Here is the input.
Amino acid sequence: MTPDASTESPFWSWHDVAVFAGLAIPALLAGAVFAQVLGLFSPVLKATKVWLSMGAFYALWFGGLYLLLKTRYDRPFWPSLGWIHPGPAAWLCFLAGPLVALSVGGLGALLRTPLKEMPIEKLLEGPAGVALFGLFSVVLGPVTEELAFRGFLMPLAVRTFGPWPGILVAALPFALLHGPEYAWTWQYVVLIGFAGAVFGAVRHYTRSTLASALIHSTYNLTFFIALVTRVGSNR
Here is the structure.
């Protein structure tokens, strides 16, 4: 499939971006309540309530975006957000993720990023915790984050500010979103912002959000393997 007009020129507005952003907190709260209620019925569900909460959040938040695009513009969800096959570049994106991860690791060394226990490591408890962490970090996280930041926000920012300023505008909230996961250690926020800019460049030059999701996925997979290995060796 080749890029169509919806991937070249966003038809939505900054008002729509504000509406989508405004839906995040209610969706997050509703997801937390949903997981808490389910946890009352089963110890297994209670043990996975963080992941249930995140899954419900994604469903509600992107369900709102789907309704926004459908009811206000009568446009399809996936093509509108640039979810198209990038052609031969798909394999390059898939293989480039670990290279970006290595570059981020090198930059982290230059910034003297502290290696310490992070809040997210508490989620790696037991086989189920590791499996769910992997599912969300390697599959669901890259898909949803790329749709939100590079599929929805970035095209409008690029149209408004130009290519590289627009890419950076989308990378900033992406980096800040991950701040709590790393205890707001500034070096990690900078590194994630750098990775977000790389994902944005891939999205811009391939016109494909699927392409940026592929590189994001294998990038996360590289760090997931390293994190699981490190946590396992410390136990």
About this structure: The chain has one domain: 5-233. Residues 5-233 form one domain.
